[in-house]
Amino acid sequence: MSFTNKNQGYALIIVLWTIVILSIILTSLVDEVSLNTMLVSNNLQQKRTDQVAVSGVMLGINQLKKDKTDYDTNNDQWTKVIEGELNNLKYKVRIKDIGSKFNINYNSYQLFYSFGWWNRELEKRLKQGLISDLVLMKDSFGKDYDQAEKFLTTYGKFNLNTDRLESLKQLMLSLQINEFQTGLVIDYLRKQRKQNNMFRNIDKLDKLYLKGLAASTVEKIEPYITTKGRININIARQELLSAILSQQLRVGLDSSHLYINKILNYRQENGIKNLNNLQRIMSVKKLEAIKPYFTVTSHYFLITTKIFSGSNNFKKEVKAIVKRKKKNNQWQVKILRWQE
């Protein structure tokens, strides 16, 4: 083979290898571009999904703000599912009252004894301190957790007239109020309860005079206490009503069921707009006995937004726990917790 032919052969090999290398590089570039395009597309899709989820929660909040009444029932507009479509995604928004339950931190243990899932070991756990979320008790409840969750919550303020005084002590100590100041308040409240004296509003605390009680102590605890009921009587479960009425009215089982049925029928037909409406079905004395536990307004809600693709494939779920209160005759809603 001549020298020229050899050079031509080498040149051909070099060209072929160059083509192969360029092809590999080009393929890699194409794959990288495709990957980047896919990542960008997925990122945009995720952003759209997140936007719809946030929009769903805001729809729920706006629904709560639009409520025109001071009382809430299971027939209110906010109890209806909100459905729609945005950014080619479908959404469903549900709002649920989660405050009309017993507060596991505060309510008397005696109210829990009628429930089969309650036991004294749970009381020992609670004596260790207040819990911020019921899920922290999941291991303690074991298989009964789902059932207990229907009736228990950690949301709501301490009721000066009805709740466990040892819980107020735990609360005050957690607010870094010293034991002397805490003892003054606890002893005073215990004395008032023995005399069957009721606090009608927390303003009375401002005028409270106890030797050695600091004004700063009252200021610290005021945001966490109330004299009003936490449980919306229009929405509370029947078993919860039964637990309260059986204890407070001190009547037999048959009489308790009679009053419960009257309440259930009345709230279904009319809606209880004011607790005094119940004078139509029970005496003033009996009504006064249960009033400290109840309200007709819901304050704590769970807003759940579920996102689906156009073909109804599940994409995402967002949960927001919110608190609603009225100020200057308008509802204000504050997000307390966000879960994705």
UniProtKB/TrEMBL annotation:
- Where does the chain cross the membrane? 9-30
Top-rank taxon, per record? Bacteria
Q: Does the keyword Transport apply?
A: no
Q: Which UniProt keywords apply?
A: Membrane, Transmembrane, Transmembrane helix
| Example GO BP | protein secretion
GO CC field: membrane
Asked whether the keyword Transmembrane is assigned, the reply is yes
Name of the protein in question: Type II secretory pathway, component PulK
What is the originating organism of this protein? Halobacteroides halobius (strain ATCC 35273 / DSM 5150 / MD-1)
